[in-house]
Specification:
Rossmann fold, 15 strands, transferase, six-stranded parallel sheet, Glycosyltransferase, UDP-glucosyltransferase activity, 2 domains, binds uridine-5'-diphosphate
Length: 483
């Protein structure tokens, strides 16, 4: 697109969790690359994480990305001092308080709208009040869920039809009704989001849904070729205005951009790449469960044993610091035996950089949508191990629709994965299966084709790039009409 969108100014307001901040910052970069002035709204303690990411964007577009902070009212409401990030309170009693505290950002947010008058607000689904805030100033609000079209549709259907109510037991399969493909699930996999009458939760859910319906539309981190049927279904059957503009992670072109996403990596990238360079093509399994999943020591122990038994080289990201004494989560002598064969990253990994390395042959993932799409973009087959949120839907998309993964076989949704749900022999079997020649070749071929499609989608004139242009054009027209 040759047009100049200089006058357009968009606010991006991510929920304070890595899985939400990372893609929305990528999105701001994408708009900035099209000449749109972008402002990312966040809290003081999250601002340095975002600015570190933006600093790596060395082209002219970084000048178009600003950060504006809003004080997060944590202490007065019962949250510990310094708690401005949901990952530290997820699946604790503090999470509802955290969520409530975000609503206290409404007033200062409206002050920003008043003074800066952006042309559009792209705000996280977790901030339903932003639709009203934006409307007060005649500004359109776009919703960002951070999930796939497949999951957007499936979630909607669960709340509309509650199909799990027609089963006799938690483990009886039901077909997701009025949904493309014959996708079967159990009540256990659908999770508390839908099946429990949690009054506080449901009222938030309803508010978010209702605010979304009044919003201008939805921006989706996906590409059309990946999930056509579900993108069409979402638009045509659920009647939502939606733009697909992903995979957002592909806006990170240089090495530094790929490294500084989210937290600072706990491993020097040279060390990591050097290790990967010593491995043969497609031989390493990368194991990482996103930014929020917390496994018990007993589950970690089973993973370690499973990896060792599989005989496969691995990189395993574990949320444990080197200082933590008494490694009850590792078998005796594990690290010594695995020298040269396995690399444990304690903390945060440069995931996109790792996934794109040719030595990576498979990815054990919790099916967070960012991770899933990053694997798709890198052409890496997956071993799916969903934990909570909408991850069981993503597993179905990966294993049954796209057929680029094998399930580890988790049966039950949980908040953050504290339960020990997969024994070592199951892990061993899944890893062996994904590397087994026949199984893999079909899967790897399909994964590589999808990766090419992903790249084409974000290139000039590709489906996502064009959809982004359409969106910017529309916002431009809207803002000139409202002037
Ligand atoms: N991530 C990373 N290094 C890590 C763990 C996670 O870079 O060690 C990034 C990953 O690339 C993805 C995001 O964090 O972009 C996690 O998002 P996802 O939706 O996969 O899972 P969530 O953390 O929201 O459960």
């Amino acid at each position: 697109m040759g047009s100049n969108y200089g006058p357009l100014h968009i606010f991006f307001f991510p929920f304070m969790a890595h899985g939400h901040m990372i893609p929305l910052v990528d999105m701001a970069k994408l708009f900035a690359a099209k000449g749109v002035r972008t402002t990312i709204i966040t809290t003081p303690l999250n601002a340095p994480i975002i600015s570190k990411t933006i600093e790596q964007t060395k082209t002219h577009q970084s000048k178009e990305i600003n950060i504006q902070t809003i004080k997060f009212p944590n202490v007065g409401v019962g949250l510990p001092e310094g708690c401005e990030h949901s990952d530290s309170v997820l699946s604790t009693d503090l999470f509802p308080i955290f969520l409530k505290a975000t609503t206290l950002m409404q007033e200062p947010f409206e002050q920003l709208l008043l003074h800066q008058r952006p042309n559009c607000v792209v705000a996280d689904w977790f901030f339903p009040w932003t639709t009203d805030s934006a409307a007060k100033f005649g500004i359109p609000r776009l919703v960002f869920h951070g999930i796939s079209f497949f999951s957007l549709c499936a979630t909607k259907i669960m709340s509309l039809y509650k199909p799990y109510n027609n089963t006799c037991s938690d483990s009886e399969l039901f077909v997701i009704p009025n949904f493309p493909g014959e996708i079967k699930m159990t009540r256990l996999q659908v999770g508390n989001f839908h099946t429990k009458d949690n009054v506080g939760h449901n009222s938030f859910w309803n508010e978010a849904e209702e605010s979304e319906e009044r919003s201008y539309g939805v921006v989706v981190n996906s590409f059309y070729e990946l999930e056509k049927d579900y993108a069409d279904h979402y638009r045509n059957v659920h009647g939502r205005k939606a733009w697909h503009i992903g995979p957002l992670s592909l806006c990170n072109r240089n090495k530094e951009e790929k490294i500084y996403r989210g937290k600072e990596a706990s491993i020097d990238e040279h060390e990591c790449l050097k290790w990967l360079d010593t491995q043969t093509t497609n031989s390493v399994v990368y194991v990482c469960f996103g930014s929020a999943v917390k496994f018990s020591d007993s589950q970690l122990l089973e993973i370690a044993m499973g990896l060792e038994a599989s005989g496969q080289q691995f990189i395993w990201v574990v949320r444990k610091s080197i200082q933590e004494k008494g490694e009850k989560w590792l078998p005796e002598g594990f690290e010594k035996r695995m020298e040269g064969k396995g690399l444990i990253i304690r903390g945060w990994a440069p995931q996109v950089l790792i996934l794109e390395h040719e030595a990576i042959g498979a990815f054990v993932t919790h099916c967070g949508w960012n991770s899933t799409l990053e694997a798709v973009s890198a052409g890496v087959p997956m071993i799916t191990w969903p934990v909570g949120a909408e991850q069981f839907f993503n597993e179905k998309l990966v294993t049954e629709v796209l057929k680029i993964g094998v399930p580890v076989g988790v049966k039950k949704w949980s908040y953050s994965g504290v339960d020990c749900c997969a024994k070592w022999d199951v892990v061993e079997k899944a890893v062996k299966m994904v590397f087994a020649k026949e199984e893999l070749e079909g899967m790897r071929k399909r994964a590589k084709v999808l990766a090419q499609m992903a790249r084409r989608a974000v290139e000039e004139g590709g489906s996502s790039d064009s959809n982004l242009d359409v969106l910017i054009q529309e916002l431009g027209t809207l803002s000139s009409l409202s002037r």
